[in-house]
Amino acid sequence: MKVKVNDRETELEFCVYDPDVMEKYENALEVAIKETTFDEDSDLKLSEKIRIQCKSVFKFFNSIFGEGTDKKVFGEKVNLKDCLSAFQQVIAEAAKQDEELANSIGKYTPNRAQRRKSKK
Prior knowledge:
With 120 residues, this protein is mainly alpha-helical. The protein has five helices and two strands.
């Protein structure tokens, strides 16, 4: 998959059909959600929240694709808009691959086989 942030395009190997990749993705997503969920009464400044969210996205990329991926994708820049865009691209790719997998498996489910048999 290609992740595009501003004019920087980075090719990353990402396949949810591989259980090791899927496990890394699931774990990294869970951590990112936990780290970026703030209480309403949090006294953190907005700048601190942005920094925490960006660092969490960097960790997300490094957990899935290997150490240093954050630098390949984002360079030295810390920008919430870029982080959220790249994060969303990975989420969308995972959903796309998951749907493709479900469609492939769906062709061979017993219900489909029964429907085909009853049409004859």
